[in-house]
Amino acid sequence: MQWEIVIGLEIHAQLSTQSKIFSGASIAYGAMPNTQACVVDLALPGVLPVLNRGAVERAIKFGLAIGATINSPSIFARKNYFYPDLPKGYQISQYELPIVEGGEVSIQIGESEKTIRLTRAHLEEDAGKSLHEDFHGMSGIDLNRAGTPLLEIVSEPDMRSSTEAVAYAKILHALVRWIGICDGNMQEGSFRCDANVSVRPRGSDKLGTRCEIKNLNSFRFLEKAIDFEVERQIELLEDGGMVRQETRLFDANKGETRTMRTKEDANDYRYFPDPDLLPVEIESDWIEQLRESLPELPHARRERYISNYGLSAYDASVLTSSREMADYFEAAAEQVPEQAKLCANWIMGEISARLKKEDMDIIDCPVGSTILVTLIKRVHDGTISGKAAKTVFESLWLGELKQDVDAIIESKGLKQISDDSAIEKLVDEVLVANAQQVADYRNGKEKAFNALVGQVMKATKGKANPAQVNAMLKKKLS
Amino acid sequence: MIRQISGSMILYYYFNIRLLIHMTLSINDVKQIADLAYIEISEEEANATLNQLSDIFKLIETMQAVDTSQVEPMSHAQDVVQRLRDDAVTESDQRDLCQSIAPQVENGLYLVPKVIE
């Protein structure tokens, strides 16, 4: 049977505020245990939550960036469950009237585009951390993380492969950093995914029973966990079994998912409006002010790169995968609009590869956009070959000769010979020395021509402009 | 596992079993709620609780009978809106003070009965 995979994602983005969502404690990462857990976070009797404007603002910005509805009023609810890293016995979250409802993003798979709809995005507080190492048979609780503002972003089940799920997660990851609401640090848990996965016979419009895979903190794990889970479910069904609705954990070491809890022992969270918090009214003036403050968004830039610079949809989406990369590209392309494609190739090729090798971000790229443009100009005006440009780039990266492109070309002797008379002399010499190949070419052997070009290039130690050599040879042999 | 949970907390649990409002409560429901709340409950207590809860549910049913189709749901009893605070760190480290009333601490952590299952 042909199976169709159905995936929806829930993404928790930690909002980049200074203080917690309902208290004035710091959310800085890496502090000593419980030094950032104040009486509100500890849920001592008599404390009350007071909502952080910064958290609400970031949620609204996200909603605006995906074209969603901003609910006003928006209300907070209690999600009840018992665990010691949640001292109140409930998490303050949103149920009815989440701050952000609807919206969509588009993902790029190769050259084709697909729209993924969002269900909602709501504000909530994070829980603390439980440490289960041996404390004389007890667990240790660190509540520094308790009360950290999160935006839970829920998608519709619109994805049909792990590739699409990863593309969607990457788009959101880029977007939250682009608009400055989350630092996106996945190692520190600032951006984590849960995946809802099910399969159904192709052509069916009924959803299969889904499993939720929790806490995937890298794109690679997200992909591996989905692939494993899909395989598992299909095998189960093809063997005549049933998928059980359950929550599963991904074991990164074994590359497999395993049962965490089944639906039967799932919590009934008993959501209800939190009487400690009043409905949040979001005035349209405030929304407009935030809309004004948003930078040009990735999809707008993508469209602009396609229409202004003639880039392919693929190139444009790679270049807009982070604001820093897009800024770098734009700074270069503005200087040489007609060479924008070359700028894109350099950024996506040589520069990205080198940055990856050194584990660096483009913001720290030692070769600035203006220097790159100079290099591209030298290739375009025929001063150096594309191959020589890579040698120059290496020099620039290492900061040689004060990153003076022309001085580097000079000192390495990379200048192409474009002087007609110099090339003509070499061509004549080659023609005399290779009479047999000249005869072969004249007898219709096209291959012999390439051999002659090769001979000339060799004689110039690769410094001649191949196009020029080609033209010259053609003229001489005609 | 038994945990200390206050009486008001238990009641609060009972009041929020939305799914059960239209159903007759069974002894198994009571046991499952107790289980979810990590409360050890004897057969006798379960039966007594079942009776008390059933009465509460009858009361809820009476209220449910009122036609509220034209009434906009209220999310708070007061007709005021939430005030927001500016995003600034206003709390300093009070760990020592807070931990002075904790039953058990170690290396800055609050210790609780082991919870891993």
- What gap, in angstroms, lies between the N and C termini of chain B? 11 Å
Residue windows where pLDDT falls under 50 for at least 5 positions of chain A: none
What class do helices, strands and sheet pairing of chain A give? alpha+beta
State mean pLDDT of chain A (0 to 100 scale).
92
Q: Which residues of chain B sit in consecutive blocks of at least 5 with pLDDT less than 50?
A: 1-12
For the secondary structure, the number of strands of chain A is 15
Question: What features would you describe in this structure?
Answer:
- The complex is a heterodimer of chains A (478) and B (117).
- Helices cover 40% and strands 20% of the residues of chain A.
- Chain A is an alpha+beta fold and 478 residues long.
- Chain A has 3 domains: 3-286, no CATH class; 296-412, no CATH class; 420-477, Orthogonal Bundle (Arc Repressor Mutant, subunit A), CATH 1.10.10.410.
- The mean pLDDT of chain A is 92.
- With 117 residues, chain B is mainly α.
- Chain B contains 4 helices and 2 strands, in the order ααααββ.
- Chain B has helices at 7-15, 27-36, 43-64, 95-99; strands at residues 105-106, 109-113.
- Chains A and B meet through helix 1, strand 8, strand 9 and strand 15 of A and helix 4 and strand 2 of B.
- Strand 9 of chain A pairs antiparallel with strand 2 (109-113) of chain B, so a sheet runs across the interface.
Which SSEs are present, and which pair or pack?
The complex is a heterodimer of chains A (478) and B (117).
Chain A: E1 3-14, H1 53-65, E2 69-70, E3 77-80, E4 90-93, E5 100-101, E6 104-109, E7 112-125, E8 129-135, E9 138-142, E10 149-155, H2 162-178, E11 191-201, E12 211-216, H3 219-238, E13 246-251, E14 256-262, E15 272-273, H4 284-293, H5 298-309, H6 313-319, H7 323-335, H8 340-357, H9 369-380, H10 386-397, H11 405-412, H12 420-433, H13 435-442, H14 446-459, H15 466-477
Parallel strand pairs in A: 12-13
Antiparallel strand pairs in A: 1-10, 1-11, 2-5, 3-4, 3-15, 5-7, 6-7, 7-10, 8-9, 11-12, 13-14
Chain B: H1 7-15, H2 27-36, H3 43-64, H4 95-99, E1 105-106, E2 109-113
Antiparallel strand pairs in B: 1-2
